[in-house]
Amino acid sequence: MDEKEALRVGAAVRRRRRSLGLTLAAVSDRSGLSVPFLSQIENERARPSSRSLERVAEALETTTAALHAAADSARTVDVVRAHEGGSGVRRVARGGHQLHAKEYTGEQDTGREYQHRNDEVMYIADGAAEVEAEGRAYRLERGDTLYLSGGVRHRWRATEPGTRILVVAVAEHIDATFDTRR
Q1: What is the rounded CA–CA span in Å between residue 126 and residue 104?
Q2: Percent helix, percent strand, percent coil in the chain, to nearest 5
Q3: Rounded distance, CA 162 to CA 167, Å?
Q4: For residues 136 and 182, what is the distance between their CA atoms, to the nearest angstrom?
Q5: Is the distance from CB of 106 to CB of 161 less than 8 angstroms?
Q6: DSSP 30-96
Q7: How far apart are the first and last CA of the chain?
Q8: d(CA 140, CA 94)
Q9: Tag placement on the chain: N or C end, fewer CB within 10 Å?
């Protein structure tokens, strides 16, 4: 493991710890590593040895490979060119990241109802669309944005030729639900 790779794992460790609802003290108890050292790892100020990272992974009920994979996806820079992708629907962000983003072009009307686990935003880049959400209809025009919290049932359709809609959502594999008990 090179230094750059070792340092990048900190954000993945923090995300995993928080997703489990654990404190640094709890991870310290489970791993036998000190709270200050764990904090330095998460803030990418310390470089854990292979054995220390294994202990952290075990404490977080995962593997070092999973932490490395999460670290790699956390620090990706990727350009998607306008000409890439098919007609109608085009991914504007590739890979298994925390956000999914797609551009819909043309007269889209699948008639399908959607209900996503996490939040999403629809931005009308060109044209117009109608969205039904929670029993209400919304007419959106160029420049309008609609926010939908996770769990909201909705359907939408473009209402003008050449309509372009950008949909950005928190990925389904991310647990971004808010727990009021914490």
Answers
A1: 10
A2: 30, 25, 45
A3: 16
A4: 32
A5: yes
A6: HH---HHHHHHHHTT-S---HHHHHHHHHHTTS-HHHHHHHHHHHT------TT-S-SSEEESS-SS
A7: 36
A8: 27
A9: C
Which residues, at least 6 apart from 90, have a Cβ–Cβ distance to it below 8 Å?
A: 80, 84, 102, 103, 105
And the tokens for 52?
A: 């220390």
User: Each residue of 15-40: pLDDT tens digit?
Assistant: 899 889 999 999 999 999 999 999 99
Amino acid letter, residue 153: R
- pLDDT digit string, tens, across residues 59-89: 999 999 888 877 765 556 677 777 776 668 8
Per the CB < 8 A criterion, the answer to whether 80 and 87 are in contact is no
- The owner of tokens 């000409």 is 83
Handedness of CA 14, 20, 23, 25 (dihedral sign): negative
The SS3 call for residue 133 is strand
Euclidean distance between CA atoms 140 and 138, whole angstroms: 6
